[in-house]
Amino acid sequence: MTQGEEMRLGRLHWALEDSTFASMDFLNEVAERYPNAVSMAAGRPFDGFLSLESVHRRLETYHRYLESVQGLGSDRATRTLLQYGPAGGVINDLIARHLAVDEGIETEGESIVVTVGCQEAMFLVLRALRADERDLVMAVSPTYVGLSGAAKLADIPVLPVPTDETGVSLSHLASQVRQARAEGRTPRALYVMPDFANPSAVSMDLPARRALLRMAEEEDILLLEDNPYGLFHGEKARLPTLKALDRTQRVVYLGSFAKTVVPGARVGYLVADQQVEDDRGGAHPLAFYLSRLKSMLTVNTSPIAQAVVAGCLLESDFSLARANSQERAFYQRNLNHLLAGLRDRLGEFSDEVTWTSPTGGFFVVLTLPFTVDDEDLQVCADKYGVLWTPMSHFHGPDGGENQLRLSCSAISTDMIDIGLDRLRDYILSRLR
Amino acid sequence: MTQGEEMRLGRLHWALEDSTFASMDFLNEVAERYPNAVSMAAGRPFDGFLSLESVHRRLETYHRYLESVQGLGSDRATRTLLQYGPAGGVINDLIARHLAVDEGIETEGESIVVTVGCQEAMFLVLRALRADERDLVMAVSPTYVGLSGAAKLADIPVLPVPTDETGVSLSHLASQVRQARAEGRTPRALYVMPDFANPSAVSMDLPARRALLRMAEEEDILLLEDNPYGLFHGEKARLPTLKALDRTQRVVYLGSFAKTVVPGARVGYLVADQQVEDDRGGAHPLAFYLSRLKSMLTVNTSPIAQAVVAGCLLESDFSLARANSQERAFYQRNLNHLLAGLRDRLGEFSDEVTWTSPTGGFFVVLTLPFTVDDEDLQVCADKYGVLWTPMSHFHGPDGGENQLRLSCSAISTDMIDIGLDRLRDYILSRLR
Q1: Which of A144, A278, B199, B226 is most buried (most C-beta within 10 Å)?
Q2: Which class is domain B10-39+325-431?
Q3: Which residues fall within 8 angstroms of residue B164, CB to CB, at 6 or more apart?
C-alpha cells in the first residue's frame, strides 16, 4: 500500500500553490541556468566583506564581555553562548544601545525580540495581529516578497497601497482603510520601508514621514517599519526613522543584521513597545507576546549567531555605521557608478527610458516603453548575458509590467560596467 | 492619542491566551524564585559538555572540508558559511550520512530540511498538513509541550491518544481516527516519540513499532517520529526507529542536534521523503514543499550554526554515537544513579509510590498516592529545596494529577543524591 489521497499538493497549506513560489523558482532557475551572466538581480551583500576570521573574533569578544564586563565568569559566559536561552533573545540590551547610537531610537531590551532574520520578525507580527478572519494588513506596493510570503503563511490577507513619489499614497491608504472597515474588516497595520525601499528604490522625506505617522494615529493602525538599507544612505544625511519620530507607540520596527553584520548569522530583531492589555488589568509590551509565539516557532534564536552580532556591536562601540564604513563607501560607489553608467549609456533615450535616482540603498528601478516579463528576462540572459528582476514579481496580478529592478550590491564596478553595456544592447534591441 | 481598541490581548492570535503559557510561565517563575533548589525539572543537556573551543574548531573543520574535500576553494567555502543559503539547508548530505551510520535510515539530502531546531520542523509539518479547518493531528498523551505549542500556532487541533505500556494505545488510536472521520474531520498524522519519550519515559518495543506502522498504513495517516533521546539508549541495544522500519514513506522523522552537538546552534532537521503530487502530473518530496514554507518563515537556518553541526559530524566520521561517547556514559550513569537512589529511598513504599524504569533517556516518572499540582511544587521548592515537573502540565484539562517527572540530565550524581534526599522527605511528609 502506498500513500493515499492525502499526499496531494491540494491537501497541503494553500500558500504552497501560490504563484509567489513559481515566481521565485523561475528567478532562481534563470540565475542557475546562466551562471556566466552578470547578475544585477541579486540583492545580497558583497562576498568580499565576508570573513570567517571575524566570526571567530566576534564570538570571543562577546564571550570576554560576558565573562569580565558583565562579571559572569567563564563558565556562565560559555553557557550563555551555547546552552538553551530565553525566547526573546540574549543580546537585547546591546541592540537597544545600537538603536540609540545609530538610529536615534530610545528603547529597552524588553521591547526587543531577537529573531531568525527579519523574516521571522515579520511572521511573528503578522501571526499575532491575525486574531480572526476579518483582520488584514496593508503593504506599500510594489512589496518586498518576504512580507507577502510571511502574510500567506500567517493566513492574513495583504491589501496593496501604491507607492507614490512621497513613498506611500496617503489618499489610497485612507481609502483602503475606510473601505475595509465598511466591509466589516479590520486593517491592523501598514508595512512600509521608508528608506531606499526594496524594490521601489523610493525614500520618504521628513514631511511624508510625519504625515504617515499622523494618519496612522487618525486611522488607529500600526506601522510596520522595515529598515534593512537605512545605514547605506550615501552622502546625504539620514532622515529619522518612523520609530525615532514615534511618540505614541504606533510603529513596530523591523531590523536585520544581514547587511550590516553578516547574512549567515540569520539574526534580525523587532522593536514592539506597544502596551498590550490583558483581561486581568495587566499589561506587557507587545514584544513579550511575540516572544511567546516565537517560543512555539523556533524556541530561541541561536545564541551563537547572536554572539556574532553582539561581538560586532561591542567592537564598534554599538555603531554599525562605524563598523560598516568600508561597506558603506563600497555600496555608495557602486550606486553612483550604476547611476552614472545609466546616464552615459541611456541618457540620450531619456524620453523613453527613465530610472529612479536614489541617494542610497542597493536598488535602481528602470521604466521602459515596453513590457519586460519573465520570457524577456530569459531572452536577455541567454542572448545578452545580464540578469535583472522584472518588477511585476513585486506586484499583485497587475503592475510593474514595464519596469525592471537593478541591484548593485553583489558585484564590482567593473562588472556593473559590463552588465550595463549588455543591458543597453538589450534595451536598444527592444527600442528599435 | 494613544493606542486604540486593537491593543488588547483578545485582539491578538488566540494561542497567546492559551493556558500552555501560563503553565510555562509558572514553571520558569518557580525555578527563578528558588535558584538554590536542586533542579530535577530541567531537561537540558549538562553544562559541563559545552565548549566554545569546539565551536571554533568545528567551524574550521567544515570550512576545510568545503575548501579541500568538496574542492570549493577558500572563498566559496567562506561564502557557503556566511552568505545567504538555500532554504532547505546546506549540510543535508552530511546529515543523510549520519542517519545511515547511526540510525539505519537510508535517505538523501533532498528529502531533508535543516531547521531552526526541532521546533521549527514540527511547525513546518503541522502548518503544511493544515489545509483546512477539518484537518487535525493526533499526539501521544502525555505530550511534549513543543508539539502542543507548534500545533496551536499552526491552528491545527491535537487529539490525544493515551500512552500505554507499549507506548501508544492502538485501540484508542483506531477509535480516534474513526470517530474523527465519522465527524467529517481529517486525521492527518500521529505525533509519537518511540524512544525514551519526553515526558512519559516510555519506549516502544519492536512488535509495537511494527504494529503502529501497520495501523498507520491501514488508517492512511502519517507518523511524525520525534527522536531527541534515541542515542542515549544505555546498555541495551537500540531498537530501529520507525523511520528505519518504514518501507512506504509513512514516517516523517524529526531530529534535533541540541542534545548531541550543542543546544546553542539551534539546528534540527526533518526527513520527509513522501512524494507529493501536484496538479500537473509532477511530484516532489514533501521536504521540497516544507522548504518552501520555511523560506517564508526563517529564509534559511544560519549556515554558521549548520557548520558547527557539520564540523561535529565530519570529526566523528558521521557517528554522533561516537562523538557522544562521554555524554552517553554520563547520562547513563546519572539515570542509573537516579533509579538506584529511588529504590534506596522509596523502595520500602513500593505499594504506594512507583516509578518508570527506562533503560535510557533523561526522564523518570513517579506515580504517587496523592496529587502533585503547581501549589505542591511551590511548597516542595520552598520547604524542601527540590524542583520537579507536575505531569499535569503535559496533559489536557485532566490527567497526570498524581505524577511528577524527574530529569537527571543537567545535574551531577552528587546533586541527584541531594535532590532525592529532599524529594524523599517531601514525599514522606505527604504520605504520613
Answers
A1: B226
A2: alpha beta
A3: none
